[in-house]
Amino acid sequence: MERKQAHVGMLVLLGGDGDVPTVARIIKLNRARAKVVVIDGCESKTEGSRWNVPYALMKPVDETSVTEKSGRQS
How far does Cα 55 stand from its chain's mean position? Predict the structure, then answer.
């Protein structure tokens, strides 16, 4: 994903090849990285933790697919 595609509040999927996919929400945009808060985490990335992630490791996620999968309502 590129910087110009990202916006605050956007849901993204984190992780490269071989990593456990993690759903997060962008809370701040910087030049090279975005600050995200983890929504649907795993052991190494607990829910609610904050990470600075390069745009190259993010993929946009459809919000409806995440809420249906997790069974949560926003």
Answer: 10
Quick one: pLDDT at residue 74?
46
Fold classification of 3-60 is: SH3 type barrels. (2.30.30)
Q: What is the pTM of this model?
A: 0.80
Euclidean distance between CA atoms 57 and 68, whole angstroms: 24
36 is written with which tokens? 């995200």
63, burial (CB in 10 Å: exposed 0-12, middle 13-18, buried 19+): middle
Query: Could you list the mean pLDDT of each consecutive 10-residue stretch along the chain, which spans 74 residues?
Result: 94 83 94 94 84 94 72 50
Asked if residues 48 and 27 have their Cβ atoms less than 8 Å apart, the reply is no
β-pairing, 33-40 with 22-29?
antiparallel
